[in-house]
Amino acid sequence: MKTINFSMKRVNIIIILISTLMMLVVLNLPFKAKPFGDDTFHVEAKNMARYIKGDVSYDKVTVTKAPGPIIFYSIPYLIAPSTATDNQLWVYATLFTFFIVTISLLLIFKIGTSLFSKEVGLLAVVLFFIFPIHCYYSLGILAEVPAFFSLTVALYGWTIAFQNPNKKAGWILLIFGLWFLILNRPNTLLILGLGFLIIGYSFFKRKEFFKTYGKKLVLTFFAVGFLGMGTLQLAKVITGTKSGENQEGLFYYVAHIGRFQFREEPTDFRFWDNDNRADSKDYQNWGISGTELGVIIDKTHKPSNQVYKEFLINDAIEHPFWFTRQFFVKCFYGHVYFINSVQPKDFHLGPVRGIAAYWFVMLIINCVNLLLIFGAFVFLFKEKNLINYWPFWAVIVSLLIFHGLTYMEPRYMFPSRVALYIMSAAGLYSIKWIQNKVNFIAKFVFPINTPTN
């Protein structure tokens, strides 16, 4: 009897080597993610690590935004010496994120292999290497990599649970992955709501699915919700009155931006900051609105969150056309990429430079994005049992709903690319021409079949 026998160790080595090469290439590109993001995660993780070491007092410890990145980056900062400078801490963090991203790619290969085939697993990883945006985000102290890792673990856990519902490891990994995903991207709490809708649908329409997974999924969602909300509340307790910033205030601030994003300029995809959008009508109107709301707060003495909340609700009701158009434009914008760290006129990549070079590179990058989205749609169209892959599409839907209604940046959708790439690989592999090309590459990656008894 002949069976396919390929060495996972060999595939893992190839993934690690190519990941290292891609990281070195991206590290030397003339454009990079901001090393410390907006500084919040870096400063708070640094203070958390130093408090644990006993180097600073408790009053320095705050968690004003998502707690996940603080936990994540505290790990390499704990390893670093107490005297490390910010730049040295960045090196520790970057090495740690590279390690985590590489583990994620190894898991992505396993997910694709387990649910579909080793060729689909290979194609999913190849798609990441074609457009290594994961390496780009690995070079900043951001929420993107820990969220990316979280979803990878969740999908890996579901893969195990789906194939062996009685195996506790799968459900534990699913709970941990979803919980940590919410800590890094609290907006993904919507996936729990979608999850309960899926359970309800399966109860009436997919009896076999509900019988096998329904009760365990209910427990999973309640566990994730309890742990997630509990940790977010703990973050508030830790911060207390030590900072005026908090999750609720941040939400209303960002949602207020969202009411002006693509409002009267639906094709202006420039990044939302003063360097890029100073001449933008939407950006200017956002500033004017913020000033007006500030005056209302001063006159009425209402809490700022209440004033912003009232504005958001009234504005959506008064401008339903803008609200609807903005939602769909934001959903589109979340899947296209532009390099905002450099102006088009200052762009250079090796010998090519200037505005024409910038837009040519953007065209190539977004053609790859379109290919990925096309592959995912092929999968969704052809797959008859989409409920089996609920976490793959549910996380994308939840992020699109939240950011379509509030404020969108492509990086907010980045964690969902784990699911997108795997679905895309499965869809693209069903196309004969692509299947033949992948099978050809697979001959050089996987050992030759050997006979076994």
From TrEMBL:
Topology of this chain in the membrane: Multi-pass membrane protein
Record localization: Endomembrane system
Keywords annotated in UniProt: Glycosyltransferase, Membrane, Transferase, Transmembrane, Transmembrane helix
Pfam families: PMT
Transmembrane regions: 12-31, 89-108, 120-139, 145-161, 168-183, 189-205, 217-235, 356-380, 387-406, 418-434
Domain of life: Bacteria
Domain annotation ArnT-like N-terminal: ranges: 88-176
Name of the protein in question: Phospholipid carrier-dependent glycosyltransferase
Organism per entry: Flavobacterium paronense
